[in-house]
């Protein structure tokens, strides 16, 4: 059930190799849990059912997972740690591009095992307590990204606001792309789906740099070169934009 | 404890008048619960403690609140209903301005009772299960706004993506402003704090229309009048903004 891989990215958490000798038991528990959830439903499956099917003791379950909900999201802790590590070393580059790259780590975790990801997506939509767990983990990703952006924007007026809004926008766009892929049964290219959504966020804030080249955003045509106007430094940018839009006929 | 009001906006949920004769018991339960939470903590207070202090039966508690968590957020259901009703009737106007106005309904609910809101904010930060409840309700607001925007953008390419990203941005900005106000002990002007954050979202997408006039954005001084040059219609607005920012010395 958990042996579908993508580009060899399958990892320790689901079906992949794990350096520690504890991995087989953890995997067996995840596999047993999902087999039971799919047949009997999440609510009607108990931890006792899971350990019986996996052939291990109850204590072993709780060594790996704090609760039954956690067995459904076995890789998020590691992915959060990877994201933090990636951000800690990413002190250069456009801040928004960096957090888009960080968000892609989540997509890659899902893409590493399409079948498991699609099963979990369907399960999560049906079980309220799992939706709660998922909201909580999504919130932690968002906070991690916002924390990074706040540091990068330290000293800017309203840097914290910009950081929080952009982090929320990146997470929303990422999840929009990921959901498109999941709804398609995990058949297509998850990276493409997510990148197509993330480009909207980067276009929104005008930052289409190096990462954009990799993405699917249409490059501006040469005739799109604009004439630059000069305004007093104190002019709020939105007023400039408003007038331009009016002049261009959008207003 | 719950008698601090703001601009007469206090409502049935917390300390205000209620047409139904059930209100006093509901209010008594909320008041008793918060007195106990503040003294003994949320976790150590039981529903039995709350009903004993309020002088009502256990069944009465569950008639008003599905769980102990729900007594902490007594007004969100009504606010969600108000938001939906507001959006249903708001078929005109810039979609982004409409959802900003809808988000302000949440701020007003908090501002209606600053003392209660600040107490709850402090309690929620300390109790993980309350943070979970709060995340869940924030998500419902975000979905409500996204649903509205999706309908308004129906037919647009990537309308759903735009709707979800903008709804997330509006919620993040709203909560940033609200948190600023709550951290200040609910002393200042909640509307001003939230509007100052929301203006960033509306500037981001270039739409600063009628609502901006009502908001607290500083009015531009006359000498801020800008000179507008004309760019080709096909120029993406972000490139125009990027160049302006560079010219003004921000880039």
TrEMBL record, chains A, B:
* Top-level lineage group: Bacteria
Which parts of the sequence are annotated with region: Disordered? Answer: 1-22
Q: Does the keyword Ion transport apply?
A: no
Recorded GO MF terms? DNA-binding transcription factor activity; transcription cis-regulatory region binding
Question: Where in the numbering of this chain does the HTH tetR-type domain appear?
Answer: 23-83
What are the record keywords, sorted? DNA-binding
Q: Which residues bind DNA?
A: 46-65
User: What InterPro entries would the database entry show?
Assistant: DNA-bd_HTH_TetR-type_CS (IPR023772), Homeodomain-like_sf (IPR009057), HTH-type_TetR-like_transc_reg (IPR050109), HTH_TetR (IPR001647), MftR_C (IPR041347)
Q: Report the protein name in the record.
A: TetR family transcriptional regulator
Q: Lineage of this protein's species?
A: Bacteria, Bacillati, Actinomycetota, Actinomycetes, Kitasatosporales
